[in-house]
Write a structure and sequence with these properties.
Length: 415
């Protein structure tokens, strides 16, 4: 088979909404992940891994056959055996499936966290890609409002550790227990039915299958109707009120600021009690940087026993975009310029000692010896160490300041 040498190698960017990463943004991406890994350990969340590919039924059941994700956005296809499989569009369903199929109920309440790639066929927007990446944290098997509060405190600390909490607001709502939600849903259906003739086509479709989602509508025809719809507060049972009060009391005690958003909803029936989003105006109209809620009915939907659970997810790309320019110091600790090939053995010994001592270090030992110092000086680093020969003996010169530079100099001079 002949090859067309003139043919261009296709790139991910040829598929709209995908990307390669190198340099600054790759460093930002890694910084978000590293910070997440550090903070999740502080809260005792175990690392969990679930497959990128799952049977389509896992997501169709969990996300709802009528949702946009399932009907329009999932990458689903038949494998050679005829089974329908899907590239995961989110983490929660796979983690819930693993909780049931692996017998992880024995570890309940189970606190787990993960991160990795997800896939959705959606219109690319700022910070949204068809292959994108998320952080995810879940608590399975706990019906305590303190689990909700802990997850929110975890999220709040993560955003603070990333340095992006300024201008980000935690918005919070309660969807009540099953009785509260059913009563509210009935009232909403009655309200929207009375205005059926003025609703958009999408909202008419949702009216029979997912009426709570009409409250989210951005269509100008729907907004006056949605804005005049009844709030859930009038339908909350005393138990649901107590649950929400315990969550907000936990946040207040931990010093986490929050705002009530009575219009924040989750459309699927397995959601209960707490729903939340951390929102910002720094990413345009799509302002959610982290969101989640309690989904006490999900595992039962997947065929497992009734199991309370709560969780959140956040887009890594979106968090990386919000990082300040100076939050990551990408400089090396040390660069070694070998100005005399006769001292390469010492330079290599110094390089090994620095790296073994926890210093990020590079060496410039190729090309013209006269140009190596200038070449090394162009590499961003806290310290520049030149290694050469003067008066027939080893000569080491160090340029740089700060604690890291001084510590590196001390280590090299001690060799």
């Amino acid at each position: 088979m002949s090859k067309d040498k003139s043919a261009k190698i296709p790139t991910p960017q040829a598929v709209r909404g995908t990307q390669d990463m190198l340099g600054d943004f790759a460093d930002r991406f890694a910084y978000v992940v590293e910070t997440f890994e550090r903070v999740r350990r502080l809260y005792g969340f175990k690392r969990v891994e679930v497959p990128v590919i799952e049977p389509t039924a896992v997501f169709a059941r969990s996300l709802g056959e009528t949702t946009d994700v399932v009907s329009k956005e999932m990458y689903s296809f038949e494998d050679r055996g005829g089974e329908s499989i899907t590239l995961r569009p989110e983490f929660t369903a796979g983690i819930a499936r693993a909780y049931v199929t692996n017998g992880w109920q024995q570890f309940a309440p189970l606190k787990v966290a993960t991160h990795g790639p997800l896939f959705r066929y959606e219109r690319p927007q700022k910070g949204r890609y068809r292959q994108f990446h998320q952080l995810d944290a879940e608590v399975l098997g706990s019906d305590s409002p303190l689990a909700d509060a802990e997850l929110l405190v975890f999220a709040d600390q993560l955003l603070k550790e990333l340095g992006i909490s300024e201008g980000v607001t935690l918005t919070l709502n309660t969807l009540g227990d099953a009785a509260s939600r059913d009563a509210w849903r009935a009232a909403l259906v009655e309200h929207f039915e009375a205005h059926r003739g003025n609703l958009s086509e999408d909202s008419l479709a949702r009216l029979d299958k997912n009426p709570l989602r009409i409250l989210d509508s951005k269509d100008p025809r729907d907004r006056p109707i949605a804005d005049s719809a009844p709030d859930i507060d009038a339908f909350l049972t005393s138990e649901a009120q107590d649950f929400f009060g315990a969550v907000t009391a936990g946040l207040d005690a931990a010093g986490v600021a929050w705002e009530r958003n009575a219009r924040l909803v989750r459309g699927l029936d397995y959601y209960r009690h707490t729903a939340f989003e951390f929102v910002t105006d720094r990413l345009g109209a799509q302002g959610t940087v982290l969101g989640g809620g309690r989904y006490d009915g999900l595992i039962e939907t997947l065929g497992g026993p009734p199991t309370p659970a709560v969780g959140w997810a956040a887009g890594i790309e979106r968090l990386a975009m919000l990082l300040a320019d100076d939050v990551i110091d990408t400089r090396l600790d040390t660069v070694i310029a070998v100005e005399d090939d006769g001292q390469i053995a010492f330079a290599m010994r110094a390089l090994a000692a620095l790296r073994n001592g926890g210093f990020a270090a590079e060496i410039v030992a190729s090309g013209s010896p006269r140009k190596r110092f200038d070449k090394a000086a162009k590499i961003p680093a806290h310290a520049l160490i030149s290694v050469g020969t003067r008066d027939g003996a080893l000569h080491v010169n160090v340029r740089g300041d700060g604690d890291r530079a001084k510590a590196a100099e001390g280590l090299v001079r001690a060799l």
